[in-house]
């Protein structure tokens, strides 16, 4: 059998055990000194159970050190979204165990209680956890302990399984169709041309396909010709016209305040909202394969990354968003000078944690969509995550 | 904290048993108090959802209960003090146990609104303190009627308490885990019940064993201060088990139970426990006066002693030590003497109780020693020549422990009488002092021992019968003045033989009916046949009464002795056990030369046995069952060791280990034998360890096999075999094709190529379905189905060998 390497264990009394010991000592003093047989016997019974618990706990080490504990974390974790943590527990030894298992990370701990882990039994424990903060999270050791049978003493095996995971920012809900429409309108405003034509007057979306009529569908979208051919009502499904390339720029500015109490709520709130919006946009774009998405993060310095949607490349963009720390001092972003020229031609969604009055004029003239920190909650095409207020910087 | 049935029941049982322990020892509480509390606990357990009090309401309720309790106890104390029912110590004890009631009320109030596991721990502590109060009260008042049930209640409480604590621990751990994971901790899962209950019993048993070992081996300080409120004795006014003597007129059947009366240990000079033989006689009372079928106890002057009849080898020198543990409540003749002019009951138990007497071959005891400071035994004194122990005050007189040491080297029987020492008179009550005076304390008008009672003397039937018996043996039918002791003895022997060795006229029976109520019961026994074959029947009391009266008819002093004859050897403790069915009555006659006035004034008291020997041989007809012996052992342990901690000196040292060695017969062994025994024990232990290791290995191998078979189930082998065979007739199974589709294709091929039977055709499909059932539903195929598959597979293989592969 293979031992769990470098695991250490410790024994500690619980407060119930200390209370038990105290009570037994008082009884023993009375029964022993006054020679009252019944009290002495009761005290010896209490002490006997305490001793047996100790013997069990000490001998339990043998069953404990062969325990195999493997933790499995999900590949992608978003802040504010439940993710499942799995711990596989195998008892290769020949004795039954009653266990309490604790898995700790930076933001809390998961606990499981297994009343009976039979010998040579393997059990996979799964529990959901919601991490409120984005950034680099560290999972610490896994603690397997028992207080069986009476809980007077506890023994814990500390299995070092340190792992790091980058928790992506919390996601809100993005109405991509609406966003695409706004991008088109703004691009049209900037370029002065119509990049695409309407298939029929009043239509804003492109034809996608036919489907069977459902209750609530507008009769205007019934495709009568196909309906007559098939014999049942079919309606047209439309989809918004896709913008093939888009650039998301995040200006991760945060104000400076001398009051530490306002640190998390007021200083980091707009920044987190901006980061969350950027991540939500990236994830929403990623659901529509075939686009080229660029991400520019100005976090005191300019970080530029691009990815093809529908692929795993988007993960690197989210990682960079997860690790944004924000800047409050340093050189300002000179947009037209620092950005590559080819990126300047793309439709740009400018997300900043500044207020709208602080946005430079050159940006206003070149960017399709500017979203300032105070406007995020008022966006019609975006619902921020519910835990947005509680989320704070943890990078 | 999630509460469910297992949780609630375990806690309810523990709290209720703690309350019951308190109720058993509290005889002064109102009758409604404890049942009401038990009902309240049960209601809280049964309807936990209805008692979700707010914190304020719960606190107010607890406060109200405390105030109500204070008012109640104040009222009770004032009323009982004014009624004179509570003395100081008694009042203290009552107040003490009322404290237990208050704890019960607080426990109830807490159980109405428990918020965390800590609250349950607090409730358990309250329950434990209640039990402790009950134990302390019981120690001070062991004569309470309920004490017999107390050990069982205590054991039940301990077991249920351990169970509840285990359940509490499980819930505490599970409640701190994922709420979704607490779902399995429901009492609907039988294995969880089994785990919790089984663990409770197992750990409680281990704890009890360990506690017993610690209790028996660790010496206690043994402070027995009388000033302590815990050691205050009580004077009980009620004591049962009174018998004024043998009453032949009451009852037609002698019923003898198998209750343990006396447990006696006997050591020889080497300190080994010895078996004294079956003819052990234990005397508890001498009855001297007879009136209308009723024998009354003899006067103090009659207390001469009839020895044990146990075999003592003459070459065994040194001392003998006898130790008695007599249950006085089972010795009816030992208590309850009605002494006019003295306070009844109180003094009766102080009557000297000669239990053990020396063998004639032995000298008088050099000294008598009692070695414990029990409150029941008020002292040891010397009555006439022998040590005798009297029990003062029956209040807590329950077990009489008494030890005598006989020294054979002291051969002077007429040495100076040892006087009672001051140290022997520890706490001797004032009313017991007269027993140390030599003057008789009673002036009862007993019949002379050598004359018949007046009623029998007038009828003359017994005199006539005795004369007829003696004439039959050519002996003088009337007392002859001046006859010597041998002639007297020969007359006694003849009369004894008439009763004991006369099967044509007498038969021993434990039941008989009275036919002639106009006759004295003893006359009726001697003169009236009661059996269908014309024999006279009776038990030992009839025989002894008859002989005593026949001897008195011949003016030979005689009296009845009540005691026990025989005994059992308890191999567990290596002690003599004398039970109620060993009770016996026999006769003592004063044998000596008759004076010229026709009276025997000098001589010796000798023992005679008128009961037929055939009956005596079958007297110990019953052997106590193992269950009875076990219960007696437990009772012995409980009463002597647990309750009478002050008297358990013998168990209070590491000598307990020696006792255990004795019990296992190791102490009797020589050193080589001991080494041999130890070697055997070590060998047995080594064998056990080897067997355990082998068993573990076999189990591990079986488990490993099971694990392998779990992943590679037999059906997987069939699958492989099946695919192997089917690949001979079909193209190799593509990866996208499921096994069932592959089997269906094989079935089609078999049907197309003229497979001889439909069973063979659909064999692949059937096997695949069985495989799926096992693999995904966990339903293993039946053994008959497996055998069928194997047979058909081999048949299919043979057929395929005949058919060319396409």
SSE order and pairing:
The complex is a heterodimer of chains A (395) and B (806).
Chain A: E1 8-13, H1 15-33, H2 37-65, E2 68-72, E3 77-78, E4 82-91, E5 97-105, E6 108-117, E7 121-130, E8 135-146, E9 153-159, E10 163-168, E11 173-174, H3 176-191, E12 206-212, H4 224-230, E13 234-239, E14 245-251, H5 263-267, H6 269-286, E15 292-298, E16 302-308, H7 314-322, H8 335-338, H9 341-344, E17 348-352, H10 361-366, E18 369-371, E19 382-383
Parallel strand pairs in A: 3-10, 14-15, 14-17, 17-18
Antiparallel strand pairs in A: 1-9, 2-4, 4-7, 5-6, 5-8, 8-9, 8-10, 11-19, 12-13, 15-16
Chain B: H1 5-25, H2 33-46, H3 55-82, H4 88-112, H5 117-140, H6 150-175, H7 190-217, E1 260-267, E2 281-291, E3 294-297, E4 319-327, E5 352-353, E6 367-369, E7 377-383, E8 386-391, E9 399-407, H8 454-459, H9 461-472, H10 485-500, E10 506-508, H11 521-527, E11 536-538, H12 540-553, E12 558-565, E13 568-570, E14 575-579, E15 583-591, E16 604-608, H13 613-617, H14 626-643, H15 655-663, H16 671-711, H17 714-729, H18 739-752, H19 758-761, H20 763-777, H21 783-802
Parallel strand pairs in B: 10-11
Antiparallel strand pairs in B: 1-4, 1-14, 2-3, 2-12, 4-9, 5-8, 6-9, 7-8, 12-15, 13-14, 15-16
Question: Would you give an account of this structure?
Answer:
Chain A has helices at residues 15-33, 37-65, 176-191, 224-230, 263-267, 269-286, 314-322, 335-338, 341-344, 361-366, and strands at 8-13, 68-72, 77-78, 82-91, 97-105, 108-117, 121-130, 135-146, 153-159, 163-168, 173-174, 206-212, 234-239, 245-251, 292-298, 302-308, 348-352, 369-371, 382-383. With 395 residues, chain A is of the alpha+beta class. In chain A, strand 17 (348-352), helix 10 (361-366) and strand 18 form a beta-alpha-beta unit. Chain B folds into four domains: 5-231, no CATH class; 260-437 and 624-651, no CATH class; 454-568 and 592-617, no CATH class; 714-802, no CATH class. Chain B is built from 21 helices and 16 strands. In chain B, a hairpin with a 2-residue loop joins strand 7 (377-383) and strand 8. Chain B is elongated, with a radius of gyration of 40 Å. At the A-B interface, helix 1, helix 2 and strand 6 of A face helix 5, helix 6, helix 7, helix 14 and helix 16 of B.
């Amino acid at each position: 059998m293979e031992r769990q390497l470098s695991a250490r264990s410790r024994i500690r009394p619980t407060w119930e055990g200390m209370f038990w010991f105290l009570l037994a000592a008082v009884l023993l003093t009375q029964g022993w000194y006054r020679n009252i047989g019944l009290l002495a016997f009761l005290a010896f019974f209490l002490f006997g159970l305490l001793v047996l618990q100790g013997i069990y706990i000490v001998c339990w080490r043998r069953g404990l050190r062969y325990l195999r504990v493997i933790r499995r974390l999900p590949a992608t974790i978003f802040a504010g979204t439940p993710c499942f943590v799995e711990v596989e527990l195998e008892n290769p030894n020949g004795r039954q165990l009653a266990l309490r298992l604790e898995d700790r990370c930076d933001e809390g701990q998961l606990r499981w209680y297994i009343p009976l882990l039979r010998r040579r039994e393997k059990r996979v424990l799964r529990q959901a956890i919601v991490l409120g903060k984005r950034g680099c999270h560290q999972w610490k050791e896994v603690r397997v302990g028992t207080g069986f049978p009476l809980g007077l003493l506890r023994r814990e095996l500390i299995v070092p399984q340190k792992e790091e995971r980058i928790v992506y920012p919390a996601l809100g809900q993005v109405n991509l169709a609406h966003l695409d429409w706004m991008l088109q309108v703004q691009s049209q405003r900037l370029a002065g041309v119509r990049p695409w034509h309407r298939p029929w007057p009043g239509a804003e979306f492109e034809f996608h396909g036919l489907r069977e009529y459902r209750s609530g569908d507008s009769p205007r979208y019934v495709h009568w010709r196909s309906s007559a051919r098939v014999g049942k009502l079919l309606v047209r499904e439309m989809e918004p016209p896709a913008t093939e390339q888009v650039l998301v720029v995040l200006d991760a500015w945060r104000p400076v305040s001398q009051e530490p109490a306002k640190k998390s709520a007021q200083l980091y709130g707009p920044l987190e909202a901006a980061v969350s919006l950027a991540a939500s946009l990236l994830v929403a774009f990623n659901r529509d394969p075939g686009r080229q998405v660029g991400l520019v993060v100005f976090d005191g310095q300019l970080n530029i990354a691009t990815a093809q949607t529908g692929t795993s490349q988007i993960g690197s963009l989210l990682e960079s968003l997860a690790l944004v720390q924000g800047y409050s001092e340093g050189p300002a972003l000179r947009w037209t000078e620092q950005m590559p020229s080819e990126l300047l031609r793309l439709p740009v969604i400018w997300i900043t944690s500044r207020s709208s009055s602080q946005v430079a004029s050159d940006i206003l003239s070149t960017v399709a969509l500017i979203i300032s920190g105070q406007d995020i909650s008022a966006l019609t095409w975006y619902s921020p995550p519910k835990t947005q207020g509680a989320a704070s910087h943890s990078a | 904290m999630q509460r469910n049935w297992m949780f609630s029941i375990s806690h309810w049982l523990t709290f209720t048993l703690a309350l019951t322990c308190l109720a058993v020892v509290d005889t002064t509480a109102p009758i409604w108090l404890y049942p009401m509390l038990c009902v309240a606990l049960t209601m809280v357990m049964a309807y936990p959802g209805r008692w979700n009090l707010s914190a304020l309401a719960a606190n107010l309720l607890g406060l109200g209960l405390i105030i109500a309790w204070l008012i109640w106890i104040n009222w009770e104390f004032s009323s009982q003090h004014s009624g004179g029912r509570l003395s100081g110590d008694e009042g203290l004890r009552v107040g003490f146990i009322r404290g237990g009631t208050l704890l019960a009320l607080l426990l109830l109030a807490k159980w109405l609104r428990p918020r965390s596991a800590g609250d349950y721990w607090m409730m358990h502590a309250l329950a434990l303190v209640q039990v402790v109060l009950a134990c302390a009260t019981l120690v001070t008042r062991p004569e309470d009627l309920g004490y017999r049930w107390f050990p069982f209640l205590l054991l039940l409480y301990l077991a249920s308490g351990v169970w509840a604590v285990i359940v509490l621990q499980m819930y505490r751990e599970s409640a701190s885990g994922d709420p979704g994971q607490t779902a399995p901790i429901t009492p609907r899962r039988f294995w969880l019940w089994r785990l919790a209950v089984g663990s409770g019993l197992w750990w409680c048993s281990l704890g009890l064993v360990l506690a017993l070992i610690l209790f028996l081996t660790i010496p206690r300080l043994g402070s027995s201060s009388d000033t302590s409120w815990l050691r205050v004795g009580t004077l009980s006014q009620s004591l049962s088990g009174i018998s004024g003597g043998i009453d032949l007129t009451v009852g037609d059947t002698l019923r003898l139970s198998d209750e343990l009366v006396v447990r006696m240990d006997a050591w020889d000079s080497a300190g080994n426990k010895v078996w004294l033989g079956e003819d052990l006689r234990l005397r508890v009372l001498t009855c001297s006066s007879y009136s209308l079928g009723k024998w009354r106890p003899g006067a103090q002057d009659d207390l001469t002693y009839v020895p044990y009849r146990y075999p003592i080898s003459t070459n065994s020198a040194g001392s003998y030590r006898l130790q008695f543990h007599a249950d006085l409540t089972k010795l009816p003749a030992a208590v309850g003497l009605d002494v006019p002019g003295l306070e009844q009951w109180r003094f009766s138990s102080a009557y000297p109780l000669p239990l053990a007497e020396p063998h004639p071959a032995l000298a008088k005891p050099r000294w008598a020693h009692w070695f414990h400071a029990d409150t029941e035994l008020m002292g040891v004194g010397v009555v006439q020549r022998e040590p005798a122990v009297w029990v003062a005050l029956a209040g807590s007189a329950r077990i009489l422990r008494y030890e005598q040491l006989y020294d054979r080297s002291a051969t002077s029987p007429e040495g100076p009488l040892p006087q009672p020492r001051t140290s022997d008179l520890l706490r001797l009550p004032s009313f017991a002092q007269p027993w140390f005076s030599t003057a008789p304390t009673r002036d009862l008008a007993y019949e002379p021992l050598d004359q018949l009672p007046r009623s029998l003397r007038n009828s003359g039937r017994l005199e006539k019968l005795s004369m007829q018996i003696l004439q039959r043996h050519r002996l003088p039918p009337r007392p002859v003045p001046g006859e010597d002791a041998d002639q007297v003895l020969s007359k006694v022997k003849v009369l004894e033989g008439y009763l004991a060795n006369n099967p044509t006229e007498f038969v021993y029976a434990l039941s008989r009916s009275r036919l002639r109520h106009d006759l004295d019961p003893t006359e009726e026994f001697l003169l009236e046949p009661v059996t269908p074959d014309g024999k006279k029947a009776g038990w030992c009391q009839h025989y002894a009464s008859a002989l005593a009266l026949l001897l008195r008819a011949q003016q030979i002093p005689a009296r009845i002795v009540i005691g026990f004859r025989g005994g059992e050897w308890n191999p567990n403790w290596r002690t003599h056990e004398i039970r109620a069915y060993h009770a016996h009555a026999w006769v003592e006659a004063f044998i000596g030369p008759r004076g010229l006035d026709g009276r025997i004034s000098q001589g010796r008291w000798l023992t005679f046995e008128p009961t037929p020997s055939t009956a005596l041989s079958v007297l110990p007809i019953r052997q106590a069952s193992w269950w009875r012996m076990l219960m007696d052992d437990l009772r012995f342990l409980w009463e002597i060791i647990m309750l009478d901690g002050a008297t358990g000196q013998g168990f209070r040292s590491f000598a307990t280990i020696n006792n255990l060695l004795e019990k296992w017969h190791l102490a009797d062994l020589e050193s080589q034998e001991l080494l041999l025994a130890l070697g055997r024990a070590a060998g047995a232990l080594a064998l056990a360890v080897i067997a355990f290791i082998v068993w573990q290995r076999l189990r591990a191998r079986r488990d490993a096999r099971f694990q392998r078979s779990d992943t590679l189930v037999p059906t997987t082998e069939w699958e492989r075999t099946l695919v192997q065979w089917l690949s001979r007739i079909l193209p190799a199974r593509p990866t996208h094709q499921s096994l069932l589709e592959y089997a269906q294709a094989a079935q089609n091929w078999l049907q197309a190529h003229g497979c001889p039977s439909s069973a063979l055709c659909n064999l692949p499909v059937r096997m695949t379905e069985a495989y799926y059932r096992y693999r995904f539903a966990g339903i293993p195929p039946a053994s008959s189905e497996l055998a069928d598959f194997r047979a058909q597979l081999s048949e299919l293989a043979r057929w395929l060998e005949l058919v060319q592969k396409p």
